[in-house]
Design goal:
Jelly Rolls, Rossmann fold, disordered N terminus, alpha/beta, twelve-stranded mixed sheet
Amino acid sequence: MSVDGTPENPFTLGADDLARLDAIREALLDPSPRRIGRLDQWGLADSYETYTEIAAYRELSITMPDGTVLDASLSVPRNLAPGQTCPAVVLPAPLIDIGHRAYLGMIPRLALGGYAVLAYSQRGLARSTGEIHVAGPQDIADATVVVDSLMQTDGVDPDRIGFLGSSYGAGTSLLAAANDRRIKAVVGTSAWGDLFASLYENGTRHLKAFEALVQLFGEDRCSPEFREVIGKIRANTIDDTVREFARERSPRNYLNAYNDTATPILLTTAWHETVFSVPAVIELFNGLTGPKSLLVQVGDHGNGELPGLAGLLSKPTEMAYRWLDHHLGGSAGDGREPGYGIRSEYMHNLLSDLRHPDWESYALPKRRFHLTAPAAGQSDGQLAEGEPQAGWTRSVKSTGQGTDIVVAPKLVQTGLAERMGLPYVYKTADVDRGLAAVWTGAPLERAMRVQGDLELRVTVKPQQADATIVAYLLDVDPATGKGHIITHAPFTLTDRPAGESTTVAFPLQPAHYVLARGHRLQLVVDTHDPFFTTADTTTPVFTLDITSPEGSESHLDVPLGALD
């Protein structure tokens, strides 16, 4: 499925994709030989000819109690026997300007599996009226009305209703299930677990991703409440209003509701997800006590499921069909039982496929690497196992420019390249050691794997209040000096005065990465990344000291083990 290159929108489609969806929609609304014949140029004519024999498609509007009208479509099986019922799936739209039509490619597969399918665009999105509330209480109330509407459809089994959504639709699906016990199974691809953690990691705003989402929503369509929150985040005013806005939109806060009903939940995310917090998704998964499954793939937001939304094969959608079949009684999948626990790919091999029953068995034991002072005549310190190393200081300049090491040169598109086996290459020798502190490990004697949670502890003394540091862990080939990013995390010393030494310990994003024999781990710490700021931000120039005092020595904990 092609993407037009717009970095901010994982679901922006190219001209051919849009033409294909338009042709599919026309064929569904008017299943004449001429309309279906147009689909032959994409090899889809046979699929939709079969579809029209077994199901009927129509578009409809669903009116909410306040008069808001949701744009929707409904696919229902033909020729159900008297008294026969079918399972049903509701598909809330991802954040894309075509709304629920993004799911058109999935409808034949679901119809062949015997499902009724109701897809809709949330209020304020695409052709639906109203204002955007970002999966707020009003959107969740809307989901209940949508289920009411679906249950009025002849043949739909009220005890076999599921929700499946991607991105924005994933959040709506999860939150709807916490509110409506009629929802018996959920699939959330590119999901979020905690909205606040996605906006504000370790005291640091995710400004680039946030502004990209606001642009996609369209600020003029947002509710007054959301516009107020937008202004507060831009002004870095993170108060109770922002926290409450995020809290009621965070599935992680509704664990009791999911666990009370043992709602089966399938979640997917990506190792280099730049939109929603991966640790929060893992925390949500770990807190669930009912049937659950988590897929973590190579890439970034939305990369994994895009082919599946188009009607092609993808791990997320194939897992979704099996999940729904098992818990709702359909037959859209391949007949295999769904997997439970954790399924993962390692960077940067999208053909890899590992499975573990839970996070405890998945995450490797951590090995501690102490940060050392540079050797005489060297600018870089070492990542060394053994005894803690105290008494050194490494100073860097904060100029508001940063180094060439960044979270991702482009939102979403960098991760898409990783899925193609083309991770972004960093020339580590070119990193300005005046702007960043660097520590490098010894060459690996054998191939190793990083698998699980990481944590960095350092003591910092900035000559500016509310300073930010950004840590990156790289895989470096000593023969070429080229590196690939394994993981990262920022930390902002919120409400800390200038000139005060503070020891901070914070998690880096979890990772699953295979390191070749002879490669080195390299830690880079600087003070600026465009992912966490905006182009018009003015930053004063100041010095930041990174130190390792006695009793609070700096170290990096890495879940590292031999490659089996």
